[in-house]
Amino acid sequence: MNTFPLEADTRVLIDKSLENLGWALTGNNQNVFFEQPKTEDEKKLLGGKRPDYVLYAKDEHGEEIWFIRASVSGEPINSSKHHFETEVKAVTYNKIRIEKTASGFETEVVLDL
What stretches in the chain show pLDDT beneath 70? Predict the structure, then answer.
């Protein structure tokens, strides 16, 4: 039995969240790219690392690039310890925590049941 969301399922959730925030994943105004930046020079900036998403945003000083590496942690489901009575409806912004760490950013979200 699979105890963690599949990567494809996680990508669907991230994609929907980015679209809801106004990011364009496709089309002429696309500003989100998957697993690699638009140019070879930007790839060199990554030093061999491969992001899950590359986001491009324009501000008054030019174009800014954001690299996102998404990962999840948890523990395997144990039916004697974990009892499920309902499904998760959505991830909410209520009590969201985003913290800069030595390895990047850590985020904690609350689930709406």
Answer: 1-7, 63, 70-74, 93, 104-105, 113
Residue type, 38: K
Structure letter (DSSP) for residue 103: T
Query: SS3 for 54-102, per residue?
Result: EEEEEECCEEEEEEECCCCCCCCCCCCCCCCCCCCCEEEEEEEEEEEEC
Tokens of 41: 């020079």
Q: What is the pTM of this model?
A: 0.55
- In whole angstroms, give the CA distance from residue 55 to residue 31: 6
- Per domain, the residue ranges of the chain are 7-72
Q: Say if CB 108 and CB 96 are below 8 A apart.
A: yes
| 3-class SS of residue 15 | helix
**Amino acid identity, residue 52?**
D
